[in-house]
Amino acid sequence: MKANEGEYRLDFFLKNDYKRKICKSCNTPFWTKDIKREYCADIPCTDYYFFDIDIKSPPLSVREARKKFISFFEKRGHTPIPPKPVLARWREDLYLTIASIVDFQPHVTSGLVPPPANPLVISQPSIRLEDIDNVGITFGRHLTTFEMAAHHAFNYPDKFVYWKDETVEYAREFFTKELGIPENELNFKESWWEGGGNAGPCFEVTVGGLELATLVFMQYKIDENGNYIPLNLKIVDTGYGVERIAWLTQKTPTAFHAIYGNLVYTFFNKIGVPYVDEELLRVASRFAGKIDPDNIESIKLHRQLVSKELGLDIKKVDEELNRAARVFQILDHTKTITLMLADGLVPSNSGEGYLGRLVIRRALRVLKLLGSDIRLYELVKEQIDFWKEDFPQVLKNKDYILDAVELEQQRFESLISKVPSVISTLAKKKEVSIEDLIQVYDSNGIPPDFLEDELKRRGIKIEIPHNFYALVAKRHQTAQIKGKLEKTKLPKEIIEFANKMSPTEKLYYKDQYIRSFEANVIGIYKNYLILDKTAFYPEGGGQLGDTGFIYDITKNKKYRVVDTQKVNDVVVHILDEEPSISVGDIIRGEIDWERRYRLMRHHTATHIILAAAKRVLGEHVWQAGAEKTPEKGRLDITHHKQLTDEEIRKIEDYANKVISDRRPVRPIEMNRMEAEMKYGVSIYEGGVPDSPIIRLLEIKDWDIESCGGTHVSNTSEIGSVKIINVEKIQDGVIRLEYVAGSALVDYIRDLEARLKESAKILKTSPDQLISRIKRLLTDNEKTERLLTQYRKIFEDIIINNLKPFEINGIKIYVIEEIDDDEEIKEIMKKLTSRENNIVLSIIKNRLQIASSSNIKLDKIIEELRKVGGKGGGKGTFAMITFENHKSKEEILEIVKKSIIEEK
């Protein structure tokens, strides 16, 4: 969709003598005060000429540019709010924070909840990976990590804040008065924006070839059919490039110099490559707008232009700029890695962890291309020191960041061993497609250039796209609704039936200790019962649904509730039979309290253990799944390596201390935006509820997160907790299993019973079991040594007594009356260590055959298969089974015949 001209013809432009012009290069309309201007002052219509513009602002670092922007809008009535993490964990559909508006989607932008302030100002660190392959090549136009400074206003039908004219006026005032840019250099280019299901007209603000800001007016929702529906809530969504503002004011050779300052020179030195002439970089940057990274020819033309401008040999220009681009890539990627890990990303093969691993491995690949042997964590350490004041979380989580990066480098280096087998598989093809390369990267993590030379040597056609990593990232950057929809056990017709019912009053939230209640029947479908209120908790949040009984008071009959489920706000009770109850009847419900209380203890213990794991392992720990049953609790957490025994003990100790501290546990209902601002997005560890008011569970001075389950009111009710199993269930995810309360007593009783049974088997008492086992192990070692000696003697006797027969110079040995595979293998090994030997072992219908290294068994195997043999082998060993019995003589005859024919 394109907006009509009237959307852009603002009173501001008309009153301030701005003229609407059409760019002679791209034919895009733009507004300017410079009546002589013919071009939109954006690339590729022009080169970067901001270097030549007289700007009154002193050089601003990224930090100073951010501060100036926030201060400017704060003075004009905008409330500064802190940025969110670069991991979009308040979103169900997105892994990374790609813009400031993401902070408010979908709940604020949909009108479900109010914004934290209105209007507001923010500077949001953002990560976009679709341009990852272009970083460095364009000298700063493309980055994977950038800060989007923004001011937002949310205009409701009954509350107008400001709209287009005021937004453009703010931009004019900030750029001209705060930065001192001549107003004639300011251009407002008409454009259209879409993102996150919303859309609207926008202005791109350009100065001297550099796009400094985008002013979006979000006024449409895009429905599932692609239709544009006008929004009641109209949103001012701006984005100012903090790094570009710094570059504009500093006028450094590249944007990387403006962003990283002296860190640029530090990286060249640490990586161990010579620095690049700054005049070369400055000229290359000036013409960088001519580069279209998707067009290799445009890069060549750019290099030729630089070569001609400076009078340098084109090979020299290529060599220097390629080296600079790679160092700039390392600068960019290591910052991205640092921010991702600092905000809790755990590298893995799926989800957000996949994207983090992709950036790490691309950085390692670039270091390899530069011929550097520096460890990546050393460069990441420099980024931590550089950004620690801007982003305190990088220093707070320094140990985890460095440990995770080093572990990822070790894993990357181990990939080399997989390369030969991957090449062998791909070599069966005549041509290796892009899809093949992506599949290899997804499955094995091997970059395509590790395969290129060898495949080409074998005559296999392979072309690696320049944007390979961007293609991979694009496939993984959005989530398939990360847990929003819980699985239901209910059939479709029950869901449709329940959706017609009124919401159920949830007595388990009013009193989590209520055991029985009376209610009215409002719906019956077969054995599914819906009441106007209930104390039965429906399955959700990893907690099983309640069981118990429903009593028909009138007919004095009871029905067993075998499960409880939920359809939106309606609770469905599943009975063990179809009831003879009618709509309008009054029933009495009674939950299985012992079972429910076990669930409450395990659910509360889950919150305690999760917070304990964060304290022991680090803030990167995030809940990846959970289940609470009467028998035990299960918590899956993100972590980059196996837990040590000491770490497990510490988590357990922390949890039990919290339990013995008798800490109050209480539910709190709060506006979701207020909760986010107060407690952060970690409240969404168990999932993201889709409601304006969310229910939080607070364990005093220990943990708080969104949760709709049932819990004990004091940690002391848990009794104690024991972690009974810890295992890695997938890359980057560790599972903890634990028991609490009476389930812990059951666990101990079971252990005690097994201990007694073990002692009984070993004919000792439980308190003597360890010493008895040690003695048995010692005796067993002696027996093993003695048995090994006897085996050698036995093998020598067997070998010396075997009488081979010879055919064509080949001796054939037949092992008989030995039914021990280990013994047979040892005898075969000794006999086949000599040349010209074949050894057979025939036991019932199974044949094992081995040969000396100078004899291949392929012909013999082929002949044995012809007579019904199944199985086989390769080279010098085979195992064949026969469905129909074959005598030793028949098998020997086939072997002899094969040897004669082979000769």
Automatic annotation (TrEMBL):
Record-linked Gene3D superfamilies? 2.40.30.130, 3.10.310.40, 3.30.54.20, 6.10.250.550, Bira Bifunctional Protein, Domain 2, Threonyl-trna Synthetase, Chain A, domain 2
Q: Name one GO biological process term.
A: alanyl-tRNA aminoacylation
Q: Which Pfam families match?
A: DHHA1 (PF02272), tRNA-synt_2c (PF01411), tRNA_SAD (PF07973)
Enzyme Commission number(s) from the entry: 6.1.1.7
> Does the keyword field hold Repressor?
no
Q: Name one GO cellular component term.
A: cytoplasm
Task: Give all residue intervals belonging to the Alanyl-transfer RNA synthetases family profile domain.
Answer: 60-750
- Return the SUPFAM superfamilies for the record: Class II aaRS and biotin synthetases, Putative anticodon-binding domain of alanyl-tRNA synthetase (AlaRS), ThrRS/AlaRS common domain, Translation proteins
- Cofactors demanded by this protein: Zn(2+)
Q: Where does Zn(2+) bind?
A: H603, H607, C707, H711
Q: Molecular function (GO) terms listed? A: alanine-tRNA ligase activity; aminoacyl-tRNA deacylase activity; ATP binding; tRNA binding; zinc ion binding
| Family matches, as PROSITE patterns | AA_TRNA_LIGASE_II_ALA
The family this protein is said to belong to: Belongs to the class-II aminoacyl-tRNA synthetase family.
Q: What is recorded about the domains?
A: Consists of three domains; the N-terminal catalytic domain, the editing domain and the C-terminal C-Ala domain. The editing domain removes incorrectly charged amino acids, while the C-Ala domain, along with tRNA(Ala), serves as a bridge to cooperatively bring together the editing and aminoacylation centers thus stimulating deacylation of misacylated tRNAs.
What is the annotated role of this protein in its UniProt record? Catalyzes the attachment of alanine to tRNA(Ala) in a two-step reaction: alanine is first activated by ATP to form Ala-AMP and then transferred to the acceptor end of tRNA(Ala). Also edits incorrectly charged Ser-tRNA(Ala) and Gly-tRNA(Ala) via its editing domain.
What is this protein identified as?
A: Alanine--tRNA ligase
Question: What is the scientific name of the source organism?
Answer: Saccharolobus caldissimus
